[in-house]
Amino acid sequence: MTKTEFLELCESKNISTNLIHFENSVADGYYVLKNYHRWEVFFRERGKDYDCVGFPSESNALEYLLEKLSMA
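Above: the chain's sequence. Below: its structure in token form.
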């Protein structure tokens, strides 16, 4: 899954993409970032990272986040 496909699926499922970030910043929300040899998905709130999960590919990370957001 690519970022474009991920964002299109989010929109089709009425999931707001305003809280999803692909670059490191201080904003609260969900992050999908490359960290050395793996991709990480985590939630950042008030400068602290929570529930970090690592994946071998960006596609796996995006699929995980989509499933997580779909269940919320």
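Residues 5 and 53 are 21 Å apart (CA to CA).
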